[in-house]
Amino acid sequence: MMNLHLYMAQRISALVMAPLTLGHIAVMIYAVQGGLSAEEILGRTQGSVFWFLFYGSFVVAVSVHAAIGLRVIVHEHTGLRGAGLAAFTWGTGGLLLLMGARAVHAVTAGGAS
Amino acid sequence: MRYARTHPLWLAYVLHRVSGVALALFLPVHFWVLSYALTQPEKLNQFLSFADQPVVKVAEFGLVFLLAVHMAGGLRLMAMEWLPWSAPQKTLAAGAVGFAFLLSGSFFLQVISI
Amino acid sequence: MPEEAEKLEVSVWRGGADGAYETFQVPAYENQTILDVVSWIQQYADPTLTYRFACRVGMCGSCAMMVNGRPRWTCRTHIRTVVQDGAVQVGPLRNLPVIKDLAADMDPFFDKWVAAGGVHSPSATRHDPMEAIDPQETDRAEASAGIECINCSVCYAACDTVAGNPDYLGPAALQRAWTLYNDAKHDDRVNILDAVSGNGGCHNCHSMGSCTVYCPNELDPMSAIAGLKRETTRNFFRKRR
């Protein structure tokens, strides 16, 4: 169940995420060398404005993108529509945004020493 | 009788949908684990050592593949919709899968080469 | 026929939505379309069998059915190309209500054709001079690509998005909208973009391409819908400025 505005939100969030995804995969390929540790991850990200903006915009875009994508799939497979579908869309987007914001806060806040 | 529709672009559509759902289900878990970083870093480390098992590494390879294939497939769709050239869609769809294997493959080689 | 012909095992949908397949033994001939087989059953085995056809030469678009789970124009499909181990299954078109047996209710299909802005509204009257159109022009070439549509609903039956979302206008109606949008002699071109931008509009398409794969006239509704997405996107940014 899509209209022009949902479509634009879906495609614009996708365009935002394309370079971020490539960057994220590149970081992963680099970071997993020799195993991962919390200290290593935090040493890279804590107090960094760059990584805050990088993962912050990633979380915003993915919340929009996944909420709309799941909305379409739920409508096509269960027939949910109207207020129920709207609640599902906003609920999914809100939950991802909240959990994502907590994660970004946890890995980038503080420790700028 | 089942509706017969298996052709390359339909498979590309199914792959895009399945990878999208899988990523959407994985994300909350990913966020939840990361949010331990500040409050309980030892829990995050516990999780990261759990992720050292070979089975989990293969699962990680799968996740990176899903991410890469969803991105490449999405770029293919947007190119088809917005750019004037659009003819070799099957080739582009196959290219998206190949590109995803390349990316997730190099990730996999890194995780197993310790 | 001189000697006892080989038999085909043909199972045909009988009844409405809660019907079932019924199997008939039909003599196999050297030259035989699916429509010939269905007609044989109606003429020699069971005169109550309901099905729809008119021209028998692929012009009118009324004989489309599901054949072995695939939508096809039955008058132009040779039985030899679909028969599997001497058997074939023929059902009413997918994604449309069944009236009876092989006849599907085409009303939703044509209603959506109109809802997508598919009714031609001329830009000039008969008293105006004739407008000169260059057939090579880009717009005209896009419009010409879609005008061979015979409204058979094969693409509509092929589309999984229609199956999951009954509001979706579907490939045929949207291709018609794209054709008119590119037609210099259509008066209402901008309104088409509004008509295809609603909840059932072109943005629901997932580009799975079954429409283009199964179109019997080898048209390309998937690309026509992509054209609508492109133009509505362009219009979206133009309005903002």
What can be said about this structure in brief?
Chain B has 114 residues and is mostly helical.
Secondary structure topology:
The complex is a heterotrimer of chains A (113), B (114) and C (241).
Chain A (H helix, E strand, L loop, with lengths): L3 H28 L6 H8 L3 H30 L3 H27 L5
Helix pairs in contact in A: 1-3, 3-4
Chain B lengths: L7 H27 L1 H4 L1 H10 L3 H29 L6 H24 L2
Chain C lengths: L6 E8 L5 E8 L6 H12 L18 E4 L2 E4 L13 E5 L6 E3 L2 E2 L2 H9 L22 H9 L7 H5 L1 H5 L6 H11 L7 H7 L14 H5 L6 H20 L1
Parallel strand pairs in C: 1-5
Antiparallel strand pairs in C: 1-2, 3-4, 3-5, 6-7
Helix pairs in contact in C: 2-6, 3-6, 6-7, 6-9
Instruction: Give the spatial strand order of the biggest sheet of chain C.
Output: 2-1-5-3-4
How would you name the oligomeric state of the polypeptide chains in this document? heterotrimer
Radius of gyration of chain C: 21 Å
State the secondary-structure class of chain B: mainly alpha
Query: Could you name the CATH class of chain B?
Result: Mainly Alpha
Order of helices and strands of chain B: HHHHH
CA radius of gyration of chain B is: 18 Å
The CATH class of the largest domain in chain C is Mainly Alpha
Unreliable segments of 5+ consecutive residues of chain C: none
Strand content of chain B: under 5%
Shape of chain C: elongated
Kindly identify the CATH topology of chain B.
3 helical TM bundles of succinate and fumarate reductases
Biggest sheet descriptor of chain C:
5 strands, mixed
The domain count of chain B comes to 1
Which pair has the most extensive contact? A-B, 40 and 38 residues
Count of distinct structural domains of chain C: 2
**Helix fraction bin of chain B:** over 70%
**Count of helices of chain C?**
9
Describe the structure.
The complex is a heterotrimer of chains A (113), B (114) and C (241). Chain A has a single domain, classed as 3 helical TM bundles of succinate and fumarate reductases. Chain A is 82% helix and 0% strand. Chain A has helices spanning 4-31, 38-45, 49-78, 82-108. In chain A, helix 1 packs across helix 3 and helix 3 runs antiparallel to helix 4. Chain A is elongated, with a radius of gyration of 17 Å. The N and C termini of chain A lie far apart (49 Å). Chain B contains 5 helices and no strands. In chain B, helix 4 runs antiparallel to helix 5 (89-112). Chain B has one domain (8-112): Fumarate reductase/succinate dehydrogenase, transmembrane subunit (3 helical TM bundles of succinate and fumarate reductases), CATH 1.20.1300. With 241 residues, chain C is α+β, with helices and mostly antiparallel strands. Chain C is built from 9 helices and 7 strands, in the order E-E-H-E-E-E-E-E-H-H-H-H-H-H-H-H. Chain C has a 5-stranded mixed beta sheet. In chain C, strands 6-7 form a two-stranded antiparallel sheet. In chain C, helix 3 (138-146) packs antiparallel against helix 6 (171-181). The radius of gyration of chain C is 21 Å and the shape is elongated. At the B-C interface, helix 1 and helix 4 of B face helix 9 of C.
